[in-house]
Design goal:
Layout (H helix, E strand, L loop, with lengths): L3 E5 L4 H12 L3 E6 L8 E3 L17 E4 L12 H24 L6 E7 L10 E2 L9 H13 L8 E6 L2 E2 L5 H9 L16 E2 H14 L3 E5 L7 H12 L9 H8 L1 H8 L4 E2 L2 H5 L9 H8 L1
Parallel strand pairs: 1-2, 1-4, 2-3, 4-5, 5-7, 6-11, 7-10, 8-9
Helix pairs in contact: 1-5, 2-3, 4-6, 6-10, 7-8
């Protein structure tokens, strides 16, 4: 078990759950914050304004980089797309630079990415060896991962290609509102494959990557594929509400921007968690329905 982990983005959904899980097992957690620190476990930093002192990371077993503006904030206006890019590249570059400066004493860098890396690939099975797609989010992920790899050859870098989290504060948040008011239904065609993962398995997976010293890209998706309709219907069934009003692709693009709709909602990507399964990871929630039932 690691003795000390440094986390950026610890105030987000994944970071909060990960920090809590580690601390429950008596792992020392240092979080990087932009505000004034509240106690000795927090260190203030300002990515994009000044470099991070490498001594902050010295002695850590791993640095987990989870920062970045939320992709769930819609619509993706041109200004917000720039924020999505800069918030990821700047924070990751700052951490990678500090890690590289520690040379042989550098901790592992566990850097967030997304299954959006693969874009939309109907009919294909996507593994860590698959090529990047051509959507806005796919090209962002390529640049994001390149920044993480700047940490250098002296240390191990893992790239967490994470699927949308099935959780009340994750991908389910807008769907719950629609379902509650009885206006849920197929999103776009509805048959597109949506990668997904539960919050519990996301946290357990990150700890598995750290403990098993995995490196390179690691797909964080549930082991059983599900369509957008499968997830929507599972939620409607759990909430005992109808699932019948479609949201056509053209309307999604008009309301949310083509970049957001094509990257998040109508993208078709059957992403498999090959690296996790081959390294012995066992999922707590093997189907999207199990993840929805656990979340609601």
């Amino acid at each position: 078990m690691p003795q000390r982990i440094v986390i950026s983005g610890a105030s987000g959904l994944i970071g909060t759950a990960l920090a809590s899980s580690l601390r429950s097992d008596h792992v020392e957690v240092t979080t990087l914050v932009r505000r004034t620190p509240r106690d000795a476990s927090e260190v203030q930093w300002a990515p994009g304004e000044r470099e991070l002192d490498p001594d902050v990371l010295a002695g850590a077993d791993a640095v987990v980089a989870l920062g970045g503006a939320s992709v769930g904030r819609l619509p993706w206006t041109p200004r917000y797309r720039r924020e999505l890019v800069e918030s990821r590249l700047t924070t990751t570059r700052t951490l990678a630079t500090a890690v590289r400066m520690l040379r042989d004493d550098a901790p592992s860098l566990i850097s967030a990415s997304a299954v959006g890396y693969y874009g939309s690939a109907p009919g294909e099975i996507l593994t860590e060896a698959s090529l990047a797609g051509d959507t806005f989010l796919a090209q962002l992920c390529v640049r994001w991962e390149q920044e993480a790899l700047r940490a250098g050859e002296q240390t191990r870098v893992a790239l967490l290609r994470t699927a949308p989290i099935i959780h009340r504060q994750g991908v389910l948040k807008p769907l719950i509102q629609l379902t509650r008011f009885g206006v849920a239904g197929p999103i776009g065609p509805g048959t597109q494959i949506w990668p997904w993962i539960s919050l519990e398995d996301e946290v357990r997976g990150i700890r598995h990557v750290i403990d098993q010293r995995l490196e390179g890209p690691v797909n964080f998706t549930g082991p059983t594929r599900a369509s957008a309709n499968d997830i929507g219907r599972a939620l409607a069934e759990k909430m005992r509400r109808p699932f019948w009003i479609p949201a056509p692709t053209w309307a999604l693009r008009l309301a949310l921007s083509r970049a957001a709709a094509d990257s998040l909602l109508v993208s078709d990507a059957d992403v498999r968690p090959s690296a996790l399964e081959e390294s012995g990871f066992e999922f707590s929630h093997r189907t999207a329905k199990q993840a929805v039932d656990a979340a609601i």
